[in-house]
Structures are given as structure tokens and as C-alpha cells.
Specification:
Layout (H helix, E strand, L loop, with lengths): L1 H14 L6 E5 L6 H17 L3 E5 L6 H8 L7 E6 H10 L11 E16 L8 H10 L5 E4 L5 H13 L4 E4 L3 H10 L4 E5 H9 L4 E5 L25 E9 L4 H16 L1 H9 L3 E2 L5 H21 L6
């Protein structure tokens, strides 16, 4: 009888979640991409649930500090981690001494959105397509420079994956952010850059740089005229920065389902879709926590292979 009472009380608590404000840990700085997306989505979740969701920015070490803190919280639904590819699919392969296990210390809840990148080249380069770029790079091995936002970033990994699949060699020039690389790309000091669509396309519109394609599986609504890299001679190439929601490990299935439904409902609302489009991200298609977990596992394995093959290290 006592056991049944405990189980019944737990089920009731999950069914009535949330009964108090929910802390949403964003392991990146305020006003960054992950923070902006989290605030758009959680504002709608709060509106639908009639309960406050408080975004708590805990930046540092590429998102790993805030993620580690969220992993240690009670799995009761009142601490949610809103994070991205870097903390769960990339950092585990670059930072072997992480204070959390991305696979074991969290419960996957919901895939929220994806952000594709755009392949940009300096206008002085005599290429108009991805195929042109590959042919030019093969004919001029080592003469092209590619800019990134630093070692181990998604920009670096996209460039490394592109080079590996295309069979080309280019020289890596890291910057402290892609915004700092744009002037050199315009001037022809560097030749190639994988940038986010929202920050890269204004330079394309201004004629300062040339866009060749996008990294997503499908063409982006933000730039439907641009082919995907898979369409352009790199079959199967697909890379996005994904955004998703986790609970600490041990969260009860009924609670996971409740949180999943809340975030999925918010992402599917027309208002949130429109706001995400302005930020340059595509809302994730409806799925399940298990499907989200499988996607992250595959993404993690892909980046692990790229990091190992290209000997990428974070100093």
C-alpha cells in the first residue's frame, strides 16, 4: 500500500508539472544564438503552461560549465538544460576531462531547432559553384585559406568535413568569431568561410562575398536559391547546429513526456516558427525523445570521426 501511494504521488506530481517556476539553464552567454532561441521558445512554453520559465545563463568553456551544473540537478523537471551540438556532440570528443558524461548524465527530451551554415567564398575567387570550388582547390593544393571561429568550433568542423569529403587541402586560419573573418574574406586574405545564414547572407546581398551552398539536408527558406552541398557534388553531406532540451539523468518517463509535449507544442506554434526564422533557424520536425537521442548519437559519432581523422585539438 505504501509503495502504491509513493508511485501515485510521483505520477500526480508529474501530471501537474510545473507547479512552480522552472529554471532553464542556457550554458552560453546572454544574447548569443542559443540564448535567443531559448528565450523565444521558453516564453511560449510559459504562456502555454501558465507558469514561469526562468532562463539562467551559465556560460564558460564552450558550454560545458553550465551543462555540468544542470547534470547535477534533481531530475524533477524544475531544472531544464537548453543546449546545442557543441556540448553533447562535439565537446565530448575534444575535451576528454569533461565533468559530465553527455550520454549518461542527461535525459534527452526534445529536439527544438536546427541552424544550417552557408558556404561563402571571396568574390575574387574564380568559382561560382561548389563543384567549381572543389576543382579549383584540387588544382591548387594548399593555396586556399579557410577561416573559422576557432579550433574545434562547428565552423572548423564543417570546413574539415568539407575538405575530407571533397578531397582537398586548404590552410586553416582561426579567428575569434566569424565576424572578425569577414573583412579578410572580402579582401581575399582568406578564401573560404562556413558562416551562419543570418550573419553571412547580408554580406552576400551587399555583393561583398559569394554564397555557393548551404549545409542542411534541404534548402533553407532563408535562401531558397542556394543549393545544398549534397546537391552540389557532395552526396550525403549534411551539417546543422541543433538545439535541444535535456533533463538530468533519472527523470521519470511520464515527466519526460510532459516536458517534451510542452516544448514541441511551443515550437509548432506559428509565432515561434516565425521568430525562429528571423534568427536563421528551422524548427525541428515533430519527433520523440528517443528519436532526438538517436539523432544526437549519430551526430556525435560523425563529429568524433572528423575530429579523429583531421587530428583536431583544442589547446
Amino acid at each position: 500500500m505504501a509503495c502504491a501511494l509513493v508511485v501515485g504521488t510521483a505520477a500526480l506530481a508529474q501530471a501537474t508539472w510545473p507547479e512552480r517556476p522552472v529554471r532553464v539553464v542556457v550554458p552560453f552567454p546572454a544574447s548569443g544564438a542559443t540564448d535567443l532561441i531559448a528565450r523565444v521558445v521558453t516564453q511560449r512554453v510559459a504562456q502555454d503552461l501558465g507558469q514561469q520559465l526562468v532562463v539562467d545563463n551559465k556560460p564558460g568553456a564552450g558550454g560545458t560549465i553550465g551543462s555540468a551544473e544542470a547534470a547535477k540537478a534533481a531530475p524533477d523537471g524544475y531544472t531544464v538544460l537548453f543546449t546545442t551540438s557543441s556540448t553533447h556532440a562535439i565537446s565530448p570528443h575534444l575535451m576528454p576531462r569533461l565533468s559530465y558524461d553527455a550520454a549518461k548524465d542527461f535525459t534527452p527530451v526534445a529536439h527544438v531547432a536546427d541552424a544550417p551554415s552557408v558556404l561563402l567564398v571571396t568574390p575574387s575567387l574564380p568559382v561560382k559553384t561548389v563543384a567549381d570550388l572543389i576543382a579549383y582547390a584540387r588544382a591548387n593544393p594548399g593555396k586556399l585559406n579557410y577561416a573559422t571561429s576557432g579550433n574545434g568550433t562547428i565552423v572548423h568542423l564543417n570546413s574539415a568535413a568539407f575538405s575530407a569529403q571533397a578531397g582537398v587541402e586548404m590552410t586553416h586560419v582561426p579567428y575569434k568569431g566569424t565576424a572578425l573573418a569577414i573583412p579578410d574574406l572580402v579582401a581575399g586574405q582568406v578564401h573560404v568561410l562556413f558562416d551562419s545564414l543570418p550573419t553571412g547572407m547580408p554580406h552576400v546581398a551587399g555583393g561583398k562575398v559569394r554564397a555557393l551552398g548551404v549545409t542542411s539536408e534541404k534548402r533553407s527558406a532563408l535562401a531558397p536559391e542556394l543549393p545544398t552541398l549534397a546537391e552540389s557534388g557532395l552526396p550525403g553531406f549534411a551539417s546543422v547546429t541543433w538545439f535541444g532540451v535535456y533533463l538530468p539523468a533519472g527523470a521519470p518517463p511520464a515527466l519526460v513526456d510532459r516536458v517534451h509535449q510542452a516544448f514541441t507544442k511551443a515550437v509548432l506554434s506559428p509565432e515561434v516558427k516565425a521568430s525562429l526564422a528571423k534568427l536563421g533557424v528551422d524548427p525541428a520536425e515533430p519527433g520523440t525523445p528517443a528519436k532526438f537521442a538517436a539523432m544526437v548519437k549519430a551526430d556525435s559519432a560523425r563529429w568524433a570521426a572528423v575530429i579523429r581523422q583531421r587530428n583536431i585539438k583544442v589547446e
